[in-house]
């Protein structure tokens, strides 16, 4: 009998297969431990980790594999490092697509988009061909929304609802900024919304957010008592936080990005907390907020049984409308340019 052994629980479930691309990079380095330790898919869920990167990074991946082995994590059943999509995307339950083409000196925005369209077209087609049809796909690599759209379009046999992009880092940044301003722990702030693109046009909206203080829920505007800040510096701080981290660290956000990826995937797997919503980039189709169809756009969502639902009925004032339209317009343009590269 294994019942007294701490590992016995994890022996009862079949392992799930989870892919992380860009696995030799800095976000992956902060992320892989949490996944392999059960912080995302559950403390009793064995995991096979597949690590995909480009051929020149294979020696680095070997080092990452050694470190994962050296963590001696009981849930980690196998680690598969590879540079081949037919190996990387086979039978996946979850895919976290972190790797993308970074902007190089002198590179135009269009050239960057073109290079990423090629990557996410290939990876979408590989998902279509090799992954389980139930696979949950999270795109992190920038431009995350449009990369996600291209991957979803290139995987016609997988429901578009299975694809999402990361705006949880922006969501967490917004939550934390408000919490610090009011002087409460971050989990006392809920229902912030990130609308739109994971770019500087994103709209961090706190009109529906609440702060738990002195035993009751207070609207953020009443708790903060500084409308000028909430409509000004708060928004630009969240929009430009990535750039501020790069300026200070000389490297882009990695620890906080990894934490946000864990939050995002854990909510897909286990659902959002009761009575709370989160932000996630998902496929827009017939939504009630007047967002154009056929974009990956960040909305407020709840998730249950691995299925998301947009939170409907939030009142949108003129201030919010203008900002939502601006980020949608940017995404439409990005999508149209990206699609023009699809056939190239
Ligand atoms: P790194 O440059 O440290 O790592 C990226 C890794 O991806 C490298 O090892 C590279 O070889 C690999 N890679 C490149 N092309 C690949 C391909 N076709 N297949 C597999 N692997 C490939 O970057 P890191 O700091 O880890 O950031 C990764 C991505 O996340 C970047 O695109 C970054 O802009 C994006 N971010 C997105 C965020 C979001 O909220 N959506 C926030 C954090 C981050 O800025």
Automatic annotation (TrEMBL):
<dbReference type="Pfam" id="PF02866">
    <property type="entry name" value="Ldh_1_C"/>
</dbReference>
<dbReference type="InterPro" id="IPR001236">
    <property type="entry name" value="Lactate/malate_DH_N"/>
</dbReference>
<keyword id="KW-0560">Oxidoreductase</keyword>
<feature type="binding site">
    <location>
        <position position="53"/>
    </location>
    <ligand>
        <name>NAD(+)</name>
    </ligand>
</feature>
<dbReference type="Pfam" id="PF00056">
    <property type="entry name" value="Ldh_1_N"/>
</dbReference>
<comment type="similarity">
    <text>Belongs to the LDH/MDH superfamily. MDH type 2 family.</text>
</comment>
<dbReference type="InterPro" id="IPR015955">
    <property type="entry name" value="Lactate_DH/Glyco_Ohase_4_C"/>
</dbReference>
<dbReference type="InterPro" id="IPR001252">
    <property type="entry name" value="Malate_DH_AS"/>
</dbReference>
<dbReference type="InterPro" id="IPR036291">
    <property type="entry name" value="NAD(P)-bd_dom_sf"/>
</dbReference>
<feature type="binding site">
    <location>
        <position position="103"/>
    </location>
    <ligand>
        <name>substrate</name>
    </ligand>
</feature>
<feature type="domain" description="Lactate/malate dehydrogenase N-terminal">
    <location>
        <begin position="16"/>
        <end position="163"/>
    </location>
</feature>
<dbReference type="InterPro" id="IPR022383">
    <property type="entry name" value="Lactate/malate_DH_C"/>
</dbReference>
<dbReference type="InterPro" id="IPR011274">
    <property type="entry name" value="Malate_DH_NAD-dep_euk"/>
</dbReference>
<feature type="domain" description="Lactate/malate dehydrogenase C-terminal">
    <location>
        <begin position="167"/>
        <end position="341"/>
    </location>
</feature>
<dbReference type="InterPro" id="IPR010945">
    <property type="entry name" value="Malate_DH_type2"/>
</dbReference>
<feature type="active site" description="Proton acceptor">
    <location>
        <position position="198"/>
    </location>
</feature>
<protein>
    <recommendedName>
        <fullName>Malate dehydrogenase</fullName>
        <ecNumber>1.1.1.37</ecNumber>
    </recommendedName>
</protein>
<keyword id="KW-0520">NAD</keyword>
<feature type="binding site">
    <location>
        <position position="142"/>
    </location>
    <ligand>
        <name>substrate</name>
    </ligand>
</feature>
<dbReference type="GO" id="GO:0006108">
    <property type="term" value="P:malate metabolic process"/>
</dbReference>
<feature type="binding site">
    <location>
        <position position="109"/>
    </location>
    <ligand>
        <name>substrate</name>
    </ligand>
</feature>
<feature type="binding site">
    <location>
        <begin position="140"/>
        <end position="142"/>
    </location>
    <ligand>
        <name>NAD(+)</name>
    </ligand>
</feature>
<dbReference type="InterPro" id="IPR001557">
    <property type="entry name" value="L-lactate/malate_DH"/>
</dbReference>
<keyword id="KW-0816">Tricarboxylic acid cycle</keyword>
<dbReference type="GO" id="GO:0006099">
    <property type="term" value="P:tricarboxylic acid cycle"/>
</dbReference>
<feature type="binding site">
    <location>
        <position position="116"/>
    </location>
    <ligand>
        <name>NAD(+)</name>
    </ligand>
</feature>
<dbReference type="GO" id="GO:0030060">
    <property type="term" value="F:L-malate dehydrogenase (NAD+) activity"/>
</dbReference>
<feature type="binding site">
    <location>
        <position position="173"/>
    </location>
    <ligand>
        <name>substrate</name>
    </ligand>
</feature>
<comment type="function">
    <text>Catalyzes the reduction of aromatic alpha-keto acids in the presence of NADH. Plays essential roles in the malate-aspartate shuttle and the tricarboxylic acid cycle, important in mitochondrial NADH supply for oxidative phosphorylation. Catalyzes the reduction of 2-oxoglutarate to 2-hydroxyglutarate, leading to elevated reactive oxygen species (ROS).</text>
</comment>
């Amino acid at each position: 009998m294994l019942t007294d052994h701490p590992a016995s629980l994890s022996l009862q479930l079949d392992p799930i297969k989870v892919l992380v691309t860009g696995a030799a990079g800095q976000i992956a380095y902060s992320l892989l431990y949490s996944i392999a330790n059960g912080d995302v898919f559950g403390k009793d869920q064995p995991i096979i980790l597949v690590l995909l990167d480009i051929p020149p990074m294979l020696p680095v991946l070997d080092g990452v594999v050694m470190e994962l082995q050296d963590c001696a994590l009981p849930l980690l059943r196998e680690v598969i490092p590879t540079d081949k999509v037919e190996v990387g995307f086979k039978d996946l339950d979850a895919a976290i697509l972190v790797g993308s083409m970074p902007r190089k000196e002198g590179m135009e925005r269009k050239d960057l988009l073109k290079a990423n369209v090629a990557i996410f077209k290939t990876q979408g087609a590989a998902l279509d061909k090799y992954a389980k049809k139930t696979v949950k796909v999270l795109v992190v690599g920038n431009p995350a929304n449009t990369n996600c759209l291209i991957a979803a379009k290139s995987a016609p046999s997988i429901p578009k609802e299975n694809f999402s992009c990361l705006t949880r880092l922006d969501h967490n940044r917004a939550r934390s900024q408000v919490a610090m301003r009011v002087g409460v722990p971050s989990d006392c702030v809920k229902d912030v919304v990130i609308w739109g693109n994971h770019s500087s046009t994103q709209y961090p909206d706190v009109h529906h957010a609440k702060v738990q203080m002195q035993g009751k829920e207070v609207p953020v505007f009443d708790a903060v008592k500084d409308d000028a800040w909430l409509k000004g510096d708060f928004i630009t701080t969240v929009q430009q936080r990535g750039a501020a981290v790069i300026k200070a660290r000389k490297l882009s956000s990695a620890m906080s990005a990894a934490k946000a990826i864990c939050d995002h995937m854990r909510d897909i797997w286990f659902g959002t907390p009761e009575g709370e919503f989160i932000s996630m980039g998902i496929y827009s189709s017939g939504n009630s907020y007047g967002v154009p169809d056929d974009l990956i756009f960040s909305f407020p969502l709840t998730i249950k049984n691995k299925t998301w639902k947009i939170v409907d009925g939030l009142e949108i004032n003129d201030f919010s409308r203008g900002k939502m339209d601006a980020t949608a317009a940017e995404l439409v343009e990005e999508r149209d340019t990206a699609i023009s590269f699809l056939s190239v």
